[in-house]
Design brief:
about 150 residues, mainly alpha
């Protein structure tokens, strides 16, 4: 795998799946999809909290899939503005997922007496924190690429 500091432009084609940090799109999509599925299948006594977690998971899932498809298709054409867009998208996703993960964990603490009912929520909270971690790592490495471009 090539380093994010060795290239200042975004990769094209299937090179996206072999370069770092762009390979992080795969765990972002996997963890985001798992959060989406787990929240959708869970019981919802407080819809406003679960609604935000669902919005974040769907929004970030669609954003990551879209960016991955754009990069594989070479839509960016080597433009440096796409590097800036990548940083902005990763920053928004990291902040959104951090808020969703904290809300999901606080939701669990409110209903800790009935944990057997909320196993999907526990798993969703864990995967939301993992997605947050992956988005933060991607953001930091994208910031390095943006700074060097």
């Amino acid at each position: 795998m090539s380093s994010a500091t060795s290239t200042t432009s975004l990769p094209k084609g299937l090179d996206v799946l072999t370069t770092f940090p762009d390979v992080l799109f795969i765990p972002e999509i996997v963890f985001g999809g798992l959060v989406w599925i787990l929240v959708a299948s869970s019981r919802v006594p407080l819809p406003i909290l679960q609604g935000w977690v669902m919005f974040v998971s769907v929004f970030c899932f669609v954003m990551s899939i879209s960016l991955l498809c754009f990069y594989v298709g070479g839509v960016h054409g080597g433009s440096s503005s796409w590097v800036t867009l990548d940083v902005i998208c990763q920053e928004i996703a990291a902040l959104f997922y951090l808020s969703a993960a904290v809300l999901e964990a606080s939701f669990l603490s409110l209903f800790s007496s009935a944990v057997h009912i909320y196993q999907e929520n526990i798993a969703a909270s864990v995967f939301a924190f993992l997605a947050t971690l992956v988005y933060v790592i991607h953001k930091v490495l994208s910031l390095q690429r943006w700074k060097s471009s």
